[in-house]
Amino acid sequence: MTREETRDLAAAYALGALDAGDRGRFELLLRTGDADAVDALNEFETTLTGLSAEHVVTPPASVKTALMARIAAQGQIASPAPVTRRSWWPALWATALAAGLGAIVVGLYVSVSYERRLDTLAREAAALHDTLEREQQIIALVRDPATAIVALNGLDPAPSAHARMLWNPPAGGLLVVAGLPPAPEGKTYQLWAIAGKEPPVSAGIFSVDAKGTGSLRVSALPGIRAVDVFAVTVEPAGGLPAPSGKMYLASKS
Amino acid sequence: MPPGSIPSVDAAALIGRMAARDREAFSRFYDAFAGPVLGLIRRVLRDVGASEEVLQEVFWQIWQDAPQYDARRGSPEAWVFMRAKSRAIDKLRSIRRREKTFVLPVDEAVARVTASGTENPDEAAEGRGAIQSALAQLPAVQRRVIELAFFEGLTQSEISARLGEPLGTVKTRARLGLERLRGILKGERVTAI
Are the Cβ atoms of A15 and B174 closer than 8 angstroms? Predict the structure, then answer.
């Protein structure tokens, strides 16, 4: 916008003759402190003020009376003012400072809360991802025609216990048990795979819940193509390389 | 501003005290400015009742807005008179809109002409005399644009339509007219276009 255009706007603004669009443009200039706009408006307003003040009409006393009553009713009057404007600043600064500190504390609290929540969500997401992956492996295992289902029966320590082993030699398998008592303190259940006359090979350790159910995902066992017997014994926590405890479950050979 | 039209007061100081809610300061400010402000409003509205109503609103707004007064943006006189003029024009436009929308009953229309609140022609002529003397020194085309805006509250688009002149021409004439008026009020010799 040229200086002349700014002065055109200022003149019409002072006259109160700007249309809405131009008035918005000019008020934007004023708000941004445009020096040409401010100076031109001051100049034209001063000119019009000179014209405006020429004619005096004495107003009736009722106008002033009504105004003073309205001001009194506002309840903000001090005559003379007992409080100067400056005296508000300390209170305003204190309020602003308190508000700022409050905002920081609230911000930190919210931030920490959100971080904790994000951690929780991340852990939940990871757990769900693991569950999904396991279940996808089980589905793939079940859908594979080469997967065999082997039944394991309860033996003397837990005759009502029973289990199923989904076994696919190249892919591994899944053991699902029910009816087992919780392993004694410091003990764990361990699954063994026995092929022919070879020594039992550990296929992993597992525990059961309060209802006696549990499961174990078994990886492929290198070097073993055909398992003759699956068996479960109770062993010291962490398991052993060879079985040493009582046998709770076993498949038929 | 002509000497004597406004009593000698430190208007900026009074506004500062009004900002601190000093009622006595407001009273003195009102006494100093109410007469010329009402004169300005009456020149625009030409109706006693409506003018006094606007006068009261203008001074109420002044009391409310005193803490926002910024001396860098203009003199106290300009601050007061531009508000008064703006309010008066707003009122004038409001009345026009209402009159376009509603047809006044005969009795009310007659009352508007004969009531004591209607402008006294002699007073109006006197009131406009000083301004007219300054405006008379302007080229007619510039004077007309300023009169339509200042006295009748028309926007530039409305003036353009009324005069059948391009909008750009109206804008330029308003600006040139005010620049010349400034010179006239400063006592400068004005040359014709």
Answer: yes
**Which member of B77, B126, B174 has the closest CB to residue A49?**
B77
Which residues from A are below 8 Å from B153, CB to CB?
16
**CB-based contact A56 B39, cutoff 8 Å:** yes
Which residues 6+ apart lie within 8 Å of A196 measured at CB? A228
Residue % of chain A over a pLDDT of 90: 34
Residue ranges of domains in chain A: 3-52, 148-251
CATH number for the B1-115 domain, one of 1.10.3720.10, 3.30.1490.20, 1.10.1740.10, 3.40.50.2300?
1.10.1740.10
Question: What letters, b where the CB count within 10 A reaches 16 and e where it falls short, cover A144-166?
Answer: eeebeebebebbeebeebbbbbb
Determine which of A148-157, B101-110, B138-147 has the lowest per-residue pLDDT on average.
B101-110
pLDDT number for residue B24: 93
CA–CA dist B125, B122 (Å, integer):
5
- The CATH fold assigned to A148-251 is Immunoglobulin-like (2.60.40)
DSSP A189: E
List B residues 1-20 in contact with A (Cβ-Cβ < 8 A).
1-2, 5-6, 17, 19-20
A8 contacts in chain B (CB < 8 Å): 171-172, 174-175
Tokens of A112: 């920490």
Report the complex ipTM: 0.72
d(CA A17, CA A102) in angstroms, rounded, equals: 48
Distances (CA, A) of B173 to B71, B136, B160: 29, 15, 11
B181/A78 Cβ within 8 A: no
pLDDT in tens, A153-193: 999 999 999 999 999 988 889 999 999 999 999 999 999 99
CB contact under 8 A, B174 and A12: yes
Q: Is the Cβ pair B35, A41 closer than 8 Å?
A: no
Task: For chains A and B, count residue pairs whose Cβ atoms are closer than 8 Å.
Answer: 181
3-state class percentages of chain B: helix first, strand second, coil last, to nearest 5:
75, 0, 25
Hey, is A232 helix, strand or coil?
strand
Res. A113 pLDDT band, cuts 50 70 90: confident
> B123 at the A interface (CB within 8 A)?
yes
Return the CATH fold of B120-193: Arc Repressor Mutant, subunit A (1.10.10)
User: Among A14, A54, A70, whose Cβ lies nearest the Cβ of B60?
Assistant: A70
Domain range summary for chain B, segments of one domain joined by + = 1-115, 120-193
